[in-house]
Amino acid sequence: MAPVTGAVAPDAEPAANPVAPDAGPAANSVAPDAGPTAEPVAPDAVVRPRRRGLRTVGLIAVAAVIGLVGGTAVGYGIQADREPTALPPLNQPGLAYPAKALPKGQEPDPLSAAEDHQAKAQGDLRKLLLPKPASARIDGQDGWESLDAYADDFTRPAGALEFELDADIRRIATRAWRVGPYKRVEITLGQYRSSGGMGASEYVMNQQRIAISEGRSDSLGHAVKGSTNGRYFVYPVRRQAGYLDAYDARAFIQHGDIAVTIIVYDTKKIPESEIRSLAERQLGRL
Question: In total, how many domains does the chain have?
Fold first, then answer.
């Protein structure tokens, strides 16, 4: 029996196409009137695509690598043979401090406390608190405040205590006063150690983020004049059956390693100018 055209016998070479002895011009020839009929393939046929171009691609890749290495070597050799080119001088003025210490008696005078902000911050923090108005009376805290008492005023005291300890809080000074029967103003200065990193900045940013996310404040708040990141917020009224209307305004300011918090409560609407004035005047004392 003649083999089927395109079939591969078990022991035959893959590329062999056996042709019957009496076959026509070619085993795969097509009759003149036949259409483009596909060549029949036996079910057991093994069809292996021809691998084309692999040798050429390999040669091109090797040539590219050789060219790259050779070009690098030639460029390095050319650069090594050249004379070194001197760099232009740096466009920098001379340093302001002298090369050696000045003789005794000719040293510059130290900065005054009004000029040295760090000296002011290292002094008695309580003296930097804004004084109460003459018509107001102290209501609660006035001076140093313990960390426990400070954290206890937060909605989540445990979380506040953990944050302050991680931020390396150094000391806290608070002054609160009351005007009339209901209005209350509270100002807190929290100072952080330099080893705590960005303690004051982180505290202020967190409080501002909370004020914005609460949805009760006036959008993003308002910038405090003279501060790089201080902002104050005025909240709308809160009403609850059986209680007086509640209004509050807040300000959060960073000044160096000190975080300033100002909170105003009242049963009447708090003017924006009031919280702005408190923030600017307290920042001015720092």
Answer: 1
